Amino acid sequence: MTMDLLWIAGGVFGAVLLYFGADFLVDGGAALAERCHVPKLLIGLTLVAFGTSAPELVVSIDAALKNAGDIAAGNIVGSNICNIALILGVSACIATLGVSKSLFYLDMPFLLVVTFGFAGIEYLYGGVSRRAGAILLALFVIYLVVRIVIAPGEFVAAADDDAKPKPIWRSLLSTVAGLIALIAGAKLFVNGAVVLARFAGVSEAVIALTIVALGTSLPELATSAVAAWKRETDIAVGNVVGSNLFNIMLIMSVAPLVRPLATPGIVWIDVAVMCALVLLLWVMMLFKRKITRLDGIILLIVYIGYIAMLAMR
Question: pLDDT of 214-251, one tens digit each?
């Protein structure tokens, strides 16, 4: 009983770490973008997205080493669903999220292609082979090269000559400290939440499908919500889109390169929901070039419905 209370207290401390980690990461990332005269969107799509995807990377590689392909792939599918439906939903409810031209015309088409491509690989082969992983990794390299080539055209708009940016070492320190706090906070929060759920009599299945699935997305949730609150909407949107791209092209390439993934237990409705959400997000951006509070409410309703479906299943 005493140990359970300690875990629950650790979960509360984890929530505090999540908030301050996100705060440091957003401030550090924004300052780093300003100091280096690069777009904040690019920082959100790369540095912030990669950092907040670290839990998914660790879980999926560990699952591949243990020959648990369903966990490795299910972790990515569940995380991508959570990123769009829950995280963008919450962020859009906090503040309307603007969508840049490059995000709409470059990053979202990439996300659409790799998401449906991953779904096709799952459907045809019932898993991800080393060859498929190598193809996804090649796509990731192509994406990064194209993103770097496109980015200089955005430099002028991102630079602010009137501002006095922080020293680069301070921005990097804030960014790294934020990432460490986010990962540690997510771990503590998930452990505390699982103990609390068991204490309340919640079944292991529901815990696995909800709390644990959400756990690896907590860094993205904290980062995008704080970014939206600070009106750093490029970081908020870039973090989610970038994380989804990283999850499929990097994590789903590295994990099967470690060991090919067989995923007989992946339920197709989950993959279909992931694809539908990416398509829905693109449609929302298509007409307004922004994600409004109404869009955020719609995304949250979809996520609640999805969780309800999981609970019934």
Answer: 666 777 777 788 888 888 888 788 888 988 998 899 88
Two structure tokens written together for 46? 């790369």
* Phi then psi dihedrals of residue 66, to 5 deg: -90, 10
Distance of CA 209 to the CA centre of its chain: 17
Q: How many residues are given for the chain?
A: 313
- Rounded to a whole number, what is the distance in angstroms from the first to the last CA of the chain? 31
The 10s digit of each residue's pLDDT in 2-39 is 655 665 566 566 656 655 665 666 666 666 666 666 66
Residue 47's CATH number: 1.20.1420.30
Q: How far apart are CA 227 and CA 302, in angstroms?
A: 23
Q: Which amino acid makes up residue 180?
A: I
Structural domain includes residue 181: no
In the predicted model, is pLDDT for residue 280 greater than 90?
yes
Domains: count for the chain: 1
Contact 48, 171 (CB under 8 A): no
Q: Which residues pair with 98 in a beta bridge?
A: 290
User: Is residue 163, in this structure, part of any structural domain at all?
Assistant: no
Per-residue tokens: 42? 């690019």
- Which among 38, 46, 82, 21 has a CA at the least distance from the CA of 245? 46
